[in-house]
Design goal:
Layout lengths: L5 E5 L5 E5 L4 H10 L6 E6 L5 H13 L2 E5 L2 E6 L9 H6 L7 H8 L1 E5 L12 H9 L3 E5 L2 E5 L7 E3 L5 H12 L3 E6 L5 H12 L3 E3 L5 E6 L6 E4 L4 H13 L3 E5 L7 H9 L4 E4 L2 E5 L9 E3 L11 H8 L5 E5 L10 H5 L4 E5 L2 E5 L8 E3 L3 H13 L3 E5 L2 H4 L5 H7 L3 E5 L14
Parallel strand pairs: 2-14, 3-13, 9-10, 17-18, 21-22
Antiparallel strand pairs: 1-22, 1-23, 3-5, 4-5, 6-8, 7-8, 10-12, 11-12, 14-16, 15-16, 18-20, 19-20
Helix pairs in contact: 1-2, 1-7, 4-6, 5-6, 6-7, 8-10, 8-12, 10-12
The structure holds ligand EPZ.
């Protein structure tokens, strides 16, 4: 695991070549949590990315009693008859996705204690939808000393309707319902491909899941789930990030092992900007040699809308557009922490509430910048690749959480990158991870 915290990028070199998409971090994390539904059985996952967050989730599952082997993308999780149901604060605060063990623990053990994940650089990140839905299924939820204390004498299948198609809340309730007799229906469910991957896992484990990928998901639980094997889908956000690395450096980059349908919203926005992708059934490529692009208007939305996890990265590319762009962030309440760092490199961005107006500039220049979160860090690297001169991106710990072999992959595309020893500069945005 790479641990250097700073990266020196000598920008202005068009990238070219092909990279393969990693397994999706945001599919692997819920599927790992689903293993807790098993009793004395095991779950085998393939195409698991080697990322900080994956190791954090593995440490959390080990703390609860699971045994985990993870090598070359294959992970085997052996779950004992008895599990602990109290989660350690240091791990939960390190990664918000730890909240995904809440539903499985309540369904499996009848109890769970989870420290409330704090806010982070992209918003307050509450889990009220998760808690309200678990209560409707028959869990008693108390908040004591900053932790969720959940208990139940038995959960019941029911109809859940989310105010917002929350990815994590949909996943938590799907997993809870998989071990709850009867049919639970989730309305206004999240429709992300990662939800469908979790549904594949739950079906392989013996639950009946229908409607995954649509707004209405129904789960018929089983009393006992069985050992299963699951392949993790490709990471659409990582793949899209590399496509934009090719675009922003006016190079030519292809990403293999990705279904273009997963990036449809991004590709149609790029088309609008004047950049047309070439696709096959499992690859996408952009040829931006000598290209320019227009400004566009983007509103981030739940899937299949434009993904909020690509907002910082597309903002970086639009900072170099021939014209003005508008981005409206509608998923998180404050995902613009990266704008200040963009401005240090010469980007012209005006924040008006949850909307930013970007005035395209012909050139940006290198600077020392700090990552505030995972995708902001990735976007700053994109800017560094395009900028004139040298850029140092600090607080890379955020980036290692979500991008496997980032340095190797970028170097294979021709990037001039050097990992620096950790600097003295404290992490400007220190906070809990996503
Ligand atoms: C998942 O987070 C992803 N993380 C995020 O990716 C992604 O940005 C997000 O979905 C949206 O697509 C993982 O899958 C591990 P939400 P999640 O619940 O589940 C509000 C990355 O970079 N909300 O769909 O936490 C919430 O505050 C990360 O890989 C409530 O108000 O997202 C947000 O404004 C960053 N109450 C909105 O809903 C709740 O109970 C969407 O959140 C839950 C959510």
């Amino acid at each position: 695991m790479l641990t250097s915290d700073r990266m020196l990028i000598r920008g202005g070199r068009p990238l070219s070549g092909r990279v393969r998409a990693q397994g999706a971090k945001n599919a692997a994390l819920p599927v790992m949590a689903a293993s807790l539904l098993l009793k004395g059985r095991s779950l085998k996952l393939s195409r698991v990315p080697d990322l900080q967050d994956i190791h954090t989730m593995a440490d959390l599952l080990r703390h609860l009693g699971a045994e985990i082997e993870f090598k070359d993308g294959t992970m085997t999780i052996d779950v004992p008859e008895d599990l602990k149901w109290e989660t350690p604060s240091d791990l939960v605060r390190k990664m918000r996705a730890s909240s995904l063990v809440l539903g499985p623990l309540v369904a499996r053990c009848g109890r769970a204690v989870l420290p409330l994940p704090g806010g982070c650089a992209i918003g307050s990140r509450p889990i009220d939808f998760h808690l309200k839905a678990l209560t409707r299924m028959g869990a008693e939820i108390d908040l004591e000393q900053g932790s969720v204390h959940a208990r139940t004498d038995g959960l019941s299948a029911t109809r859940i309707n989310f105010d917002f198609p929350s990815v994590g809340a949909t996943e938590n309730i799907m997993m809870t319902a998989a071990l709850t007799e009867g049919e639970t229906t989730i309305e206004n469910a999240a429709r992300e491909p990662e939800i469908e991957n979790l549904a594949d896992a739950l079906r392989a484990m013996g639950a009946s899941v229908e409607g995954d990928g649509t707004s209405t998901v129904s789960v018929k639980g089983a009393r006992d789930l069985v050992s299963a094997k699951v392949t993790i889908i490709p990471d659409r956000i990582e793949a899209s990030t590399y496509l934009l690395a090719g675009m922003i450096t006016r190079g030519r980059v292809a990403v293999d092992g990705i279904d273009p349908a997963y990036a449809a919203a991004l590709l149609s926005k790029l088309e609008e900007a004047g950049i047309t992708a070439a696709t096959s059934d499992d690859s996408v490529s952009l040829d931006c040699r000598g290209a320019g692009w227009n400004g566009v208007t983007i509103k981030t939305l739940p899937y299949p809308g434009f993904p909020t996890d690509m907002q910082p990265q597309i903002m970086a590319a639009l900072c170099l557009a021939d014209g003005t762009s508008i981005i409206h962030e509608s998923v998180f309440d404050s995902r613009y922490m990266h704008v200040g760092e963009f401005r240090r490199m010469g980007c012209k961005i005006d924040i008006q509430g949850n909307t930013v107006v970007i005035t395209g500039v012909p050139q940006i220049s290198g600077a020392e910048v700090h990552a505030s979160d995972l995708r902001a860090g990735a976007a700053l690297i994109l800017l560094g690749l395009a900028a004139e001169g040298e850029t140092v991106v600090c607080a890379l710990k955020h980036v290692w959480r979500g991008y496997e072999r980032l340095t190797d992959k970028l170097r294979s595309l021709g990037a001039d990158i050097e990992l620096l020893p950790d600097g003295e500069s404290a992490d400007k945005f220190d906070d809990a991870g996503d």
